[in-house]
Write a structure and sequence with these properties.
The chain has about 150 residues and is of the alpha+beta class. The protein has five helices and five strands, in the order αβαββαβαβα. Helices cover about 35% and strands about 20% of the residues.
Amino acid sequence: MVADDSQYRVAWGLEPAQWRPVGRLGAVRERAVFAWRLDAAAPRDDVALRARRAYDRLGELGVAVAADATPERIEVTLPLARVEVALRALAEWAILPDAVAVGDAPADQLRTLRRDIAGWRGRVALEIGGYHESDPVAELRARAGLRE
């Protein structure tokens, strides 16, 4: 193994910054984030590998996805409407996320999402609110008073 862990992760493609977006997520308004937590219980490389396998699997299914990492977790963003299908596909490979986070979503989609996640009996947590992806173009248009 390489002395520097970050070089090791880059060499094996385990850094989310290396993962190219799949599909056109830009046109999708309602989004969900699958999150794999980075904590002391599981080595970072193991978590990164699970997230990478999930990212690749969702891309194979034709789900538009993008990835990012924070100090606390690895995130995969996908359309809110594809969460149920994505969870079923990832469960087949035993790579379910630790949590599904959503920002602002219509009430009917939140009800559906709660029902879908309840089926996993506590294996996947639901985080509502607190996740808001900022769109710099939308913010600029709002400040300038322009419509989309």
